[in-house]
Write a structure and sequence with these properties.
alpha+beta; 8 helices; 200 residues; 2 domains; 5-stranded mixed β-sheet; globular
Amino acid sequence: MVVEEGLEYGPAKRRAVKQLALPGRFDLPDNDMLEDAVREYIAVFCAETQPAELLALRQLALVWMERMAAFRPYLAGAVWHGTATRLSDIYIQLFCDDSKSAEIALIEHNVDYEPRTVTGFTGGSVEALSLSSLCQALNEMIGVHLMVYDHDDLRGALRPDAQGRKPRGDLAAVQRLLDLQDSGYQLLHPQQKNVTQGPP
């Protein structure tokens, strides 16, 4: 469900519980175990397609991070961690001095978006500005979610996770990932050029 339908871990777990008729308090695998299973699935069933799809999504994420650079953007989720496919959405966390400033910027640039309230990484409610953006390399519309946090939340946002990894990356970190991934992909697939070319 995560790989083939693009579901996030929480909704995938809830659907699995329902489909398997498990009790509501059933002890489910944690997200680290689920991510390991997702990586194994991708390695077996999606090894030929997923690297290019991930690269294209990271390119698109970088475009939106550059557009929202004034609001301290950080990439998170499957696109940051490397488990995304063409069905995955992009999650960018903004750390704003003024919680409405990012929304005002979208309005000023005539960006069509939908505001929602979701649970953030701090456990509290945060505003998400959700939009669709064309990924030219995949020829598909991709969901982009801009999660609006207070600037003070950034202090706790960069602590390593349980596996010692950075849970999110800023513009420079995403650019480094892209440079490394693009170089590796071109070495493996020299016949495929401009596969990651994103929107202008």
